[in-house]
Amino acid sequence: MKGNFSHLFLLLFLSQLVSSCLVPDNHFSKLPNGIWRGILKLDSRPVSANPKGEPLPEKLNLKFDEVTDGELPFTFEIKYITRDSFIMVLINGTERIVANDISFGRSKYLAKDTFRVNFPIYDTYLHGLYEENVMEGEWVINYRTENNKIPFVAKFGQNHRFTQLKKEPVFDLTGSWETTFGLVEGEDPYPGIAELKQNGNYLTGTFLTETGDYRFLEGTVQANKLYLSVFDGSHAFLFEGKINADTTINGIFRSGKHYQTIWKAKKGSKNVLRNPDEITQTVKGDDFNFEFPDIDNRLVSLNQIKGKVKIIQLFGTWCPNCLDETKFLLDYLQQNKEKNIAVVGLAFERYTEKEKVLPLLAAYKKRLNIPYQILWAGSYNKTEASKALPLLNEIIAFPTMIMLNENNKIIKIHTGFNGPATSKFLAFKKDFENSVNKIIQHSTN
User: With contact defined as beta carbons under 8 Å apart, do 52 and 186 qualify?
Assistant: First the structure.
């Protein structure tokens, strides 16, 4: 009897020991900590218009067998700050975007966990349900009235972006590519430059255009197909392309649900873009002035800012390129406190109601700790924006930067922004610093 009891005790002890080894300790109270793979489910409607003199997309052999049609993938990481609070880190190439405005709860009606991830700067959010290592819901773009909800699903523990296949690439895409977008009927084609870097199947890069760059793209090359995407809380870009025998590329570009077009590219370093300092010009002399409301609804005139060199930033809170430029300006001001410079942001927004716009601008200013004034200048529609500043011939891009001397004379207008995702960023920084220094020098002479 005693031997049986000892044997039973040993079995119970071993059972408890094995159980303690097999059952993981749940350190986190909400979403699993670690890497996730997300998908935005875009509409898969093909481009049906006939490009000027070009065959229809379905005749271009643009079938992308390695991926599911209309799905835009991205990866992110859940990182816990404490046991009960965490952040989401969006991953796009070398860029990391932290989202920390997150709520997690429980739906009594559905008896499931719920989540919401806000991107307050861009006025968008992800929300939905969580169950068994799967998040499912939608990405909502508040400022859009149509196509403003895109289905979303994410799975824990997956770290590939488009596919886990490793088909041998037919060509190394590393380098610059002359690109043309808008090759569909009813669109005016516009130029771009693709800057790509390939390492085996792994592909990163961006596209530069005259209105800005497409930021940090990440994807893959599979045999004669390429795939790139970015999701940053504001933009949802998907590029798919076929590499032809002559090393040209035919592709489809999608921006969320609301836009898709055809693009072509050929290998080459020729600069097909206009000089960003020559696109926007003055039409009625160079005496510049404006009067717009600030975040407290007080009218502010440029003439109220006296005796300073001025940088006027035309931007929108909805615009990631503008955010890149804002961060650049904040860094520059921090490192050049001794310089007699005034920066003013003129916001062109998607909302038209003052009661929506002014709080949005105030939150943007506070979140980024912006020390300079931000004024509401009107609609993001470029035709309307041009009317708000009639001294300029046109506004084709946000951001656009206007440099003035202390007497409010326009010295330089820079259209668009070559951000940190591009090879042009360092050259832009150097040119900006030289331009500001020259204006200051002439102002003190």
Answer: no
State yes or no: cis peptide before 189, omega within 30 of 0: no
The DSSP line for 352-393 is: --HHHHHHHHHHHHHHHT--SEEEEEEES-HHHHHHHSTTBS
Question: 177: which strand partners?
Answer: 194, 267
The confidence score (pLDDT) of residue 193 equals: 96
Q: Per the structure block, which two tokens stand in for 364?
A: 């943007």
Rounded to 5 degrees, φ, ψ at 295 are: -70, -15
What is residue 266's predicted lDDT score, i.e. its pLDDT?
A: 96
Nearest to 218, CA basis, from 425, 423, 421: 421
Distances 285 to 144, 186, 190, 402 between C-alpha atoms, Å: 37, 35, 29, 14
User: Which segment, 20-29, 51-60, 390-399, is predicted with the most confidence on average?
Assistant: 390-399
> How far is residue 392's CA from residue 389's CA, in Å, rounded to a whole number?
6
Report pLDDT digits (tens) over 294-345. Answer: 999 999 999 999 889 999 999 999 998 999 999 999 999 999 999 999 999 9
Q: Which amino acid is at 11?
A: L
Q: Which residues contact 67 (CB under 8 A, 6 or more apart)?
A: 73, 162, 163, 227, 240
* Separation between Cα atoms, residue 217 and residue 220, nearest integer Å: 10
Distance of CA 194 to the CA centre of its chain: 16
Residue predicted with more confidence, 117 or 70: 117
Name the pairing type of β-strands 249-255 and 259-267: antiparallel
Please report the domains of the chain, with CATH numbers, ordered by start residue: 34-156 (2.40.128), 175-267 (2.40.128.120), 291-444 (3.40.30.10)
**What residues contact residue 425 under an 8 Å CB cut-off, 6+ apart?**
418, 419
45, two tokens? 């409607």
In this prediction, residues 32-55 reach a mean pLDDT of 69
Query: pTM above the 0.90 mark?
Result: no
pLDDT averaged over every residue in the chain: 89
